[in-house]
Amino acid sequence: MENSSGFAVRRGWPDGSHDYIAPCATPKAAQRALESDRRYWRRGPWRPTEYRVVAMSEHDFDLHHGRRECRSPDCP
Questions:
Q1: CA pair distance 60, 25, nearest whole angstrom
Q2: pLDDT for 9-52, tens place per residue?
Q3: For the chain, the helix, strand and coil percentages under 3-state DSSP, each to the nearest 5
């Protein structure tokens, strides 16, 4: 998916930050990754408050990976 269009899962956290996981080529694959991640976090005391499948290039995904606890309102 090198620098091409794709999809990722956006997780929103209780502190207002967000991150992205699971870069995928299709929205269906990203939705499967979302459900898997949701099952993983379901029982923990600290878990995402929001999930979304978003359109995101591999390049943007890689750039964002270095941002910890991002709260930027202009992220997808």
A1: 14
A2: 999 999 999 999 999 999 999 999 999 999 999 988 999 999 99
A3: 30, 25, 45
Q: What are phi and psi of 21, to 5 degrees?
A: -135, 165
Would 39 be classed as within a structural domain? yes
Supply the range of the domain harboring residue 61: 7-65
Q: What confidence category does residue 66 fall into, taking pLDDT thresholds of 50, 70 and 90?
A: confident
Separation between Cα atoms, residue 68 and residue 12, nearest integer Å: 13
* Residue 60 in this model has a pLDDT that exceeds 60: yes
Sequence-ordered list of residues with C-beta below 8 angstroms from that of 46, at least 6 positions apart, any chain: 14
Q: How many domains are contained in the chain?
A: 1
